[in-house]
Inverse folding.
């Protein structure tokens, strides 16, 4: 199947700093991407999504950047808070498989007070 | 806020036994999904379900697996003869319309342990 992976398994940041979590994908046909947050003992929680016709999308304190040339996706979290500590996954699907998502292996974000 | 619920939170079973994992999707949602996550590994898509039939499934979802919407509220995943490698967290999700741009809401998961 398609390969979606993460560059860093663990990221530690100081509270208040910005965080950047990266994700690489291999399927050039992927056209829709989602970032999920998973806290311990809970299911994945939608954070933000982006379509392949965009290269940037902003939400509340979060920004997703998409570079289709190098098949790279990043999640930026501004002013990271202790409540942001979790595992973050990117997921993708492609046209024709709208309900079938492929997940990356996850990056654990540790926010130090 | 409406949420997806799953029962049980933890299921322990013997290898070869059948298990049924239960989910109650959000009430006005039409698309339902099962995912699994083996400890320390990525979340893997198993199956999507719409209009009382499977719309997509992965290579993991073999003949040992089945899904059902037995009534208007429950969505179940059955594993007929469990194997050790079926031990994982199983997440149910639902979405209102399905497709791109429609958020999937995940339940808290059922931890399945096969002994």
């Amino acid at each position: 199947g398609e390969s979606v992976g993460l560059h860093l398994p663990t990221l530690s940041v100081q509270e208040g700093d910005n965080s950047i979590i990266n994700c690489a994908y291999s399927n050039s046909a992927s056209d829709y991407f989602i970032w999920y947050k998973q806290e311990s003992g809970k299911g994945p929680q939608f954070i933000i999504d982006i379509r392949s016709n965009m290269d940037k999308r902003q939400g509340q304190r979060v920004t997703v950047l998409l570079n289709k040339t190098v098949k790279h996706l990043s999640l930026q979290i501004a002013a990271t808070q202790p409540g942001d500590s979790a595992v973050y996954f990117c997921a993708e699907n492609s046209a024709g498989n709208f309900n079938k998502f492929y997940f990356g292996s996850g990056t654990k974000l540790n926010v130090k007070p | 806020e409406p949420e997806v619920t799953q029962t049980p939170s933890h299921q322990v079973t013997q290898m070869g036994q059948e298990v049924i994992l239960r989910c109650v999707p959000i009430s006005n949602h039409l698309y339902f999904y099962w995912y699994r996550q083996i400890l320390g590994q990525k979340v893997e898509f198993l199956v999507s379900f719409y209009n009382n039939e499977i719309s997509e499934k992965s290579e993991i979802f073999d003949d040992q697996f089945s899904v059902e919407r037995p009534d208007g509220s429950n969505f179940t995943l059955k594993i007929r003869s469990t194997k050790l490698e079926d031990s994982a967290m199983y997440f149910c999700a639902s979405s209102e319309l399905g497709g791109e741009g429609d958020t999937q809401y995940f339940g808290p998961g059922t931890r399945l342990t096969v002994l």
Summary: Chain A has no helices and eleven strands. Chain A has a mean pLDDT of 87.
